[in-house]
UniProtKB/TrEMBL annotation:
Gene3D superfamilies: MetI-like (1.10.3720.10). This is ABC transporter permease. It is a multi-pass membrane protein. Keywords: Cell membrane, Membrane, Transmembrane, Transmembrane helix, Transport. CDD domains: TM_PBP2. It comes from Thauera aminoaromatica.
Length: 424
């Protein structure tokens, strides 16, 4: 009775003339291919790092950076390290503060200290500058007594609590202020005072205006994209030229053109009065209507192009099959054609919505105070008050909203939607 012997394990893999096994050669070829791919994408990765990731990282860092008190009053903060906050600090803290304010007198550091403390509570700037003008103190006089003689506010717990709160190298102060929150004397996160709560309303206004513009672009752009996708190539290309025409002029020129058209003596009001629709000019500028009109005009191509690219790839066979089986035209369109356009609707809507949230020029020129979006306040803190921390915090809120929208898009309308549907 013969016994079968497995000799497969003893058969060696083919080798080159130098005896290198095939498995090792495959690994080597795979490694060379990966290095080639890495070399090809390295320039793009460097561009993304330098032009995208690094600026965003720097922006987020500025939003939590807090160097003014931490770098300029280190001895004072060291004296307050074990302070319980229930009674005025010891004499060492008063002396350290007086010495460090005297050292910073006449330099940009004293202005930075005053400005940072003033953000904790209005009035601290004048307190710091008033005190600095009367420094240095007489060494023979206790620092506590001398500072109280300059201003009794140095004896209040709130003053020292503000210094202690503002002394960290990092702070959530700006990020909390960007969502109308603040930190009270006990270290709890609470709502900001009623007269300071504006940013949540501005953020909601930004979302609402962006949503209205996106819906208007979808309503106007969907028929245009559908018509382009179903016309002959010659007529479709001609219509594409008209869609792309706004790209050939700058945003500022287009906004200026709408100012000419929508003003009280502009062409739109003259046409309405000539047709007898109105007896007097309508207020079409410096309100939300003018902002909507200009933004829809500027952003409409960004909705049409994604829709057209998706619709062009939809085969008409499915709709024809439904019609041949007796399905009504509208129902065939709604049940068969429209679901296939959802990726284009999602991509176009996301693109228009995100661009809308960051718009600054159009609301600033065509809108009034109630039409200004979050980007207006970012520009205000960047260019006028030079409050980089607040500008960075508001930008971080806008970035977080953008990422959240992208996650929603990827979850329900993006390329991964099939994976989620299968997982269900």
């Amino acid at each position: 009775m013969s016994t079968a012997v497995d000799t497969s394990a003893a058969v060696p893999l083919p080798a080159e003339g130098n005896g290198t096994p095939l498995k090792k050669r495959l690994r080597r070829a795979e490694r060379r291919r990966n290095l080639l791919f890495g070399a090809l994408i390295l320039p793009l990765a460097l561009v993304v790092l330098v032009a995208f990731i690094w600026p965003i990282g720097s922006l987020l860092t500025i939003g939590v950076d807090n160097p003014e008190i931490h770098d300029n009053l280190p001895r004072t903060l060291a004296a307050l390290e074990d302070w319980d906050g229930r009674a005025p600090p010891a004499e060492a803290a008063f002396r350290a503060l007086a010495d460090e304010l005297a050292a910073a007198k006449g330099s940009p550091a004293i202005a930075a200290i005053a400005k940072r403390l003033n953000r904790e509570d209005a009035g601290y700037r004048s307190l710091v500058m008033k005190t600095a003008r009367k420094l240095p103190l007489d060494p023979a006089v206790p620092a506590r007594e001398a500072l109280l003689a300059i201003d009794a506010q140095w004896g209040e717990l709130a003053t020292w609590q503000a210094i202690h709160r503002a002394g960290g190298a990092l702070t959530p102060f700006y990020l909390l202020a960007a969502i109308d929150r603040t930190i009270d004397a006990d270290g709890n996160i609470v709502a900001a005072p009623a007269d300071e709560r504006i940013y949540v309303d501005v953020l909601l206004r930004t979302f609402w205006m962006s949503l209205v513009v996106t819906v208007c672009c979808l309503v106007l752009g969907f028929p245009v994209a559908y018509l382009m996708a179903n016309l002959s190539t010659r007529h479709s290309n001609m219509l594409m030229v008209f869609v792309l025409l706004p790209f050939w002029t700058s945003v500022l020129v287009r906004v200026a053109a709408w100012i000419v058209l929508l003003q009280n003596e502009g062409l739109v009001n003259r046409l309405l009065m000539w047709l007898g629709l109105t007896d007097s000019p309508l207020q079409l500028l410096f309100n939300r209507f003018g902002v909507y009109v200009a933004m829809v005009h500027i952003l409409l191509p960004f909705m049409v192009l994604p829709l057209y690219s998706v619709m062009k790839g939809i085969s008409p066979v499915y709709v024809r099959a439904a019609l041949s089986l007796g399905c009504p035209p509208f129902r065939s369109f709604w049940k068969i054609y429209f679901p296939q356009t959802l990726p284009g609707i999602g991509a176009g809507g996301l693109l228009v919505f995100i661009m809308c949230m960051g718009y600054y020029i159009t609301p600033a020129l065509l809108g009034g105070p109630k039409e200004q979006m979050l980007s207006y306040f970012i520009a205000f803190y960047t260019n006028q008050t030079i409050n980089w921390g607040m500008a960075a915090a508001l930008s971080a809120v806008l970035l977080a909203a953008t990422l959240l929208l992208y996650m929603v898009y990827a979850r329900y309308l993006g390329p991964t939607r099939v994976k989620y549907m299968k997982a269900r």
